[in-house]
Amino acid sequence: MWVGVAEVDGQEPRPRARDVGIDIGVLDPGPLNAITDVQGVLVGHRTLIVGDSIRTGVTAVLPHGGNLFADKVSGAIVVRNGFGKLVGLSQVNELGQIETPILLTGTLSVFRAADALVDTLLASPENAEVRSINPVVGETNDGYLSDIRARPIQPEHVREALRAASTGPVEEGAVGAGTGTRALGWKGGIGTSSRRLPESSGGYTVGALVQTNYGGLLTVAGVPVGRFVRADRPEEPRRDDKEGGSVMIVIATDAPLAHRELERVAERAFTGIARTGSWMSHGSGDYAIAFSTHRGPVDLPDGVLLTRLFVAAAEAVEEAVLNSLFKATTMVGYRGHRAEALPVSDVLEVMRQHTP
Question: What is the helix (H) or strand (E) element at residue 338, kind and residue range?
Fold first, then answer.
C-alpha cells in the first residue's frame, strides 16, 4: 500500500521506492535490498563538493575485502552503447576475471582514478612482484553540475573511497560518483537493490548498483510518470530526448557463474534500464559489469536457474534506478545549473491515477 503524500513530504531522509509501496517485480529483495546482500561485497563513496563548481566523486565496489589481484573473481562486461570510457574492458572479457576493485567516477576523471587505483595496489606489499594490473573504472558525464574540465579527482579521493568501503547499508542518491549526475529529467545518483532466489533455486542473491545519468521518459512500475511530472516548464520544449548521458551498472552474485554466464546476466541488466524509460540515445554510454563471488568449481547452471538469475538482475537494476532518483536531493552546481530532486509525492499521485 502506498503511503500518504503528507507522510512522503515529511520524510527525512528521502525514502527509497519500496518505502512508499512501489514493489518492483516478483522476487523478494535481500535483507538490505542492496548489492551488499551478496556476502562479502563492499561499497564505499567519496563525495567531492567544492565551492559552486565541483559536484563529483568516486564510488568503489569491492567483490571481497582481500587482495583482489591475488584472489580474482569471475567477471564480464557488456556494452550496450559504447559512448563511454570504461577502463579495463578488453582484459576482463578476454580472461573472464576481475582483479581490482571497481571504481565509478566522472568522465574526465576516469583516467586519474585508474592511475590512482594502480598506484594504490602496487603499493601493497602483497603485490611487490606484480608487473601488470588491469584497473576497472567506469564513468558517466557529470559536466552539467560539475566543472568536468577541472578533473578534480585526486589519488587521496580514490583511497578514501576504498577505505570507506564496507558491507551493510549503501548510501544512495547524490553521493560518490552520483553527486553530479542527472537521469530521466531529474537529479540522478547512486542506487542499489537486490533479489534473492527461492531455496528451491539455490537461494542465490543478485545485487545491483547503478550510477544513473541518462535521458528518456521516466517510467515507474510501467506507468509513464514522465508524461505528467516534469522538471521543466510546460511552455519550454523537453530536453530529455536530446540529452545523452550514461549509465554504469554493477551486478554481483554468489551464484557459481563463469564469464559466459555472467555476460548473459549482465545483458539482462538493460531490460531493467529500459523499463525505467531509457532510450539509450546516441550520446549515452551504457555498460554493465557483472561478477561472481563464488569460490570453487563452477558447473554450467541449467536453463531454469539462469532464467531466474536473469529475472533477478532485471528487477534489481530497475529498482536500483528508482532508488537513485528517489534518494537524490536537488543539486545546484557549475554555472548555476540546477538539477531538481524527483518530487516523490507527485510521482505517487500519478501512480494512483494510472494504476488499475
Answer: strand 338-339
